[in-house]
Amino acid sequence: MSAYSYEMDYRNYIIxxxxxxxxxxxxxxxxxxxxxxxxxxxxxxxxxxxxxxIYDLPPLLWRNLAVILVSSVTLxxxxxxxxxxxxxxxxxxxxxxxxxxxxxLYGQWDAxxxxxxxxxxFVDPDxxxxxxxxxxxxxxxxxxxxxAALLVVLFVLIKTLTNSFKPGKLALNLELAGTFWHFLGLLxxxxxxxxKFMPDALKESI
Amino acid sequence: MxxxxxxxxxxxxxxxxxxxxxxxxxxxxxNFWTTYVFxxxxxxxxxxxxxxGIIMAIIGIGMSTLFxxxxxxxxxxxxxxxxxxxxxxxxxxxxxxxxxxxxxxxxTFMVFFVLTAxxxxxxxxxxxxxxxxxxxxxxxxxxxxxYWFFFTSSVIMVISLFVESGPAAAxxxxxxxxxxxxxxxxxxxxxxxxxLISMTLFIAxxxxxxxxxxxxxxxxxxxxxxxxxxxxxxxxFFLTAIIGVLSFPxxxxxxxxxxxxxxxxxxxxxSDIFIGGEMLHYQGGSPILYQHLFWFLGHPEVxxxxxxxxxxxSEVISVNSRKPIFGYKAMIAxxxxxxxxxxxxxxxxMFVTGMNPFLGTVFMLFTLVIAVxxxxxxxxYITTLWKGNIRFTPxxxxxxxxxxxxxxxxxxxxxxxxxxxxxxxxxxYFVTAHFHLVMGSASAFGLFAGxxxxxxKMFGRMMNPRLGYIHFWFTFLSLYLVFFPMHxxxxxGVARHYYQYTAFDFMGVYGDLSxxxxxxxxxxxxxxxxxxxxxxxxIFFGKEAPQNPWKANTLEWTTPLRPGHGxxxxxxxxxxxxxxxxxxxxxxxxxxxQHIPAxxxxxxxxxxxxxxxxxxxxxxQENPAAEETEDKEG
Lengths: 206, 634
Ligand code: HEM
Ligand SMILES: [Cu+2]
Prior knowledge:
heterodimer, A: mainly alpha, Four Helix Bundle (Hemerythrin (Met), subunit A), 0% strand, B: mainly alpha, Cytochrome C Oxidase, Chain A, two-stranded antiparallel sheet, 18 helices, 2 strands, 60% helix, 1% strand, disordered N terminus, disordered C terminus, binds protoporphyrin IX containing FE
């Protein structure tokens, strides 16, 4: 089979196809978590008052929230300087983002540990209220996405460090990484607020 | 596929345009592995999907033969079964657990692996870039991954047929608690775990595919290819991909929770269960939650299966009626309507779960509203055929057959959409009849129509039409003979998924009908051999195809007979008109391809075209602002 030499004719687009594809991917992630949070409400809403669990989520989660918000700022910093060809500042931003990302993951893991120690493990046959189990599933799956996004940041970081981006590719890659990262930050704000306040909201609705 | 003619390589790298991410052909040297196996060419990937889909179909249909034998001859010994299945058919009698496993795997294979991946994977891949005028998909690499994820998931699903405790057996919808408790039935053991792993990969594959299809349609159309000039095939694939991207992730959520219930002992779907008199520890979960999550995907899924087939038949019917499609815009609007409505009707599969009757009525209302766009489509097919100059090619026969099945099966859908009718008919053969006609048969006919129509473009050779007609009549007759009688069995109360319903007197009276159905099914399977022979033989030995064998207007027929990676050797053609200019008054030929500008149209002698009025120059492509608004509309 032959192959023609050609260049993709991307003149007609308004948004770069890869960016567009990333937004579609984000949509799929939204649907996954939309599924979980809806399922959470359906189950929690069906509980009788006596079956409902009263608990507090570890305060550590507030710190994690702050960490992920700051990491978005540092990544934006990296993007700003990366696009202006200021390699050192861009690298600084990327390193900080990567570090904060790891810190966030560690914090989430820590929160799992604290919750388990306080008598609320993922699996507990004596429990009738699934909201804690949902907490683990939702937080864990969000964490998996953070791992994926960290790999993207690492990729951009290494390519910047070794100067191996083709001209023009740097900005594109930074923007893709930025969109994904900021989205995961926003997603966590939603999930955290949901997990934190939904139990009370449902209780009052009865 | 053997003409290694050109191997020109990279032109000068024009860095000036690099904001636009160049795409070079990395595989110009045509090494076997990169050309046929790990190819990023959408046309090769399409064929990989097609052939994998055909293999999965052979297995899936084969399984239905086995359980049809059980249904026709319950309690009788069929030595052949023991030869084939060994321990699953001791003394020639199918094991009850294995019967359930066969039914489950038949559904899984056919719905997901054949009619979802086999249909969208083949035709969205093959036709989207060719018909919108693109060199390839937006990301050839992700497209390749999509196929290999699908391949891996197929292999795992096939392997699950051979595990010690048998494959999954809780129905293609794998409802918990049955599917969640390994101690419930053998099929809920390893087989079920493999099912879930396989489906997770399958979901990943279809998301990668869908994202690529949408991005390509949105961003890579050639000059002049506005949304109101897109062939209906592309519209259908586009909407199908959107439905998939929105619904498959939710199946992933459902499957993940099921996995935790199975493997870690959580109780998302389980509560208050006794097995063998012993109380299990699960509390607080709800199996109904699973049904909601499943059918939120499951109902859109049935349209994921059907819409591509409808798109294919729009194209095939218009080309072979030599008439513009009737109601082009209405067709698009109905597809958009169906796509939207398909997300708010899922609970019509759950009328018997004890849902609040008010809620049931709401879902019933939306469900019945779907009949409107569906009827518009059926009406438009028929009016396109009306007074057409019809050419009964095999593809055309299958496309018309699709319309027939779509109507027959759609009508029973309207019946089932009424909660009051559905409650007694739920889980009877009436439902089996409904969805095999409207989904199984109609989509399979779309698939066949597509294969017969685009085979020349895929392989550069022609299929044998006579074998095609034989295949058509075998298939058409057998599908009606198999599924039509099932309506009566369902009305008589015969339940689905029963190993031996003759054990109940009121169902037992349908024993003879059941035999008749099984014979008809075997008659139908024999017919498929004509297709297989026709398909595989002519890939290698078929008659060389002309460049545009059906005299069609769409862009794929402007490529060389066996296009290489990149599709057009020179520039991509510009589009000047919609794809349905057939039998235009005054025009010399009875078709007017999309890439012919108004100045170049050849008219009959003596005909005075009112040129400037009818045919405008291409849309203002040079002006990017105009392009922008167009895209936003889409
Ligand atoms: C006029 C439009 C339609 C209506 C009103 C309709 C309605 C229904 C209803 C109410 C059921 C549930 C029956 C039960 O389980 O008790 C059902 C089942 C089903 N329908 Fe339809 N349907 C329509 C069209 C379609 C189409 C176009 C497809 C596929 C292409 C389809 C595929 C299915 C499938 C696969 C099932 C059964 C799933 C299962 O239980 O295994 N339907 N339909
Ligand atoms: Cu449905």
